[in-house]
Amino acid sequence: MLNKDIPYKKLADKFEKLYSLYNKREYVNTDPIQFLYAYDSPEDREIVALIASSLAYGKVSMIIRNVKHVLDLMEGCPARFVTDGSREKFEKVFLNFSHRFTKGSDLAAMLDGVRIVKKMSGSINSCFKESLKFCENDLCRSIEYMVDKIIGLKEANFLLPRPSAGSACKRLNLFLRWMIRKDDVDPGGWEGIRTSDLLIPLDTHMYKICFMLGFSKRKQADLKTVLEVTKAFGAIVPDDPVRYDFVLTRFGICPDMSINDLHNMIYE
After folding, report:
1. Which whole-number Å values give the CA distances from 224 to 71, 166, 168, 202, 220, in the listed order?
2. Considering the entire predicted model, what is its pTM?
């Protein structure tokens, strides 16, 4: 249930002002979304987005460095690299790759799964639309369906978590936000999916912000918390509950923008 003590109308006005100030590409230098802008083709962009979002954990500098390294190895055309590749080739290309808990073999397994999905469905976009239809527009079940299609029912891969395990699936929800929304920051590229179905990509920064706003009092940033805070944002923008995700998370990520600054701007 929504917290009736929260002044949603006042927050809507404040959030919209923040959106007009900070929803700009000049603030993406600390965000791996920056890599999507170099690819006009949705087929390339969805693969870049999956890689960039999947590696979006750890220090920002490390994320940016490692995403760039992976893309540099993909010969300038990610879609063709994946389509023409094989598990063996991916294992060889990314043999020495490492990103915290992720090894080259994990990345190779994910990309080989994408290759198979592209062969069967044409694109990750088509696969996800199939999953939404099959799962009756239940986003959590649709994410699970897509993950199963990419990495299989048995293979575990930290890069693609499953909602059924209670995971907030922050990185997959980030991937969906990038590919489905379209504004000055989110480039979009996917068709046939409603922004109203999106869920908040709940990372540490957004969790602290939602706690400060009173959107949740839960002690864990898990799937239940994601659903709770998405409902709260949906009370402000029903058609686009993740509209303010990028803007709000700049506070705490950008070096000169703290959560205390955000608090002061909202409650001044």
Report:
1. 34, 8, 8, 11, 9
2. 0.95
